[in-house]
Amino acid sequence: MSTSATRHHRPPRRPRRTAAAIRAAALLLVLAAAWVLPARAALEPPPAAQVVAQLVARIFEQTHYNHRPIDAALSQQWLREYLDYFDYGHLFFTKPDTDEFTARYGERLGDLVKDGNLAPAYEVFDRFLKRVAEREATVKLITTSTITFTEDERLTADRHELPWPADEKEAAELWRLRVKFEILQERLAGTKPAEQVKTVVTRYERMLRSFKEFDASDVLQAYLGALAHAYDPHSDYMAAPQAENFNISMKLSLVGIGAVLRSEDGYAKIVSMVPGGPAAKDGRLKPNDKIEAVGQGAEPFIDAVSMKLDRLVQLIRGDKGTTVRLRVIPAESADASKRVVIALVRDEIKLTDQEAQAKIITVPEADGRRERIGVIELPSFYADLKSAAGDSKSTTRDVQKLLAKLKSERIGGLVLDLRRNGGGALTEAVALTRVFIPDGPVVQVKDTRGFLRVLHTPALESGIAYAGPMVVLTSHASASASEILAAALQDYGRAVIAGNKSTFGKGTVQSVVDLDQYMPSALRAYKPGSLKLTIQKFYRVSGGSTQNRGVIPDIRLPAVADAMDVTETSLKNALPYDEVEPTSHPKLELTAPLLAQLDQAAQERITASPEFGYIREDLERFKKQQADKSISLNEAKRLAEKKADEDRTKQRKAERAARKAPKPREISITLESIDNPSAPAVKPSTAAKTGTGLDDEEEESKDPSAPDVYLDEAVRIVSDWAALSERGHAASLPRAVTTP
Question: CA-to-CA distance for 669 and 664, rounded, in angstroms?
Answer without folding.
Answer: 16
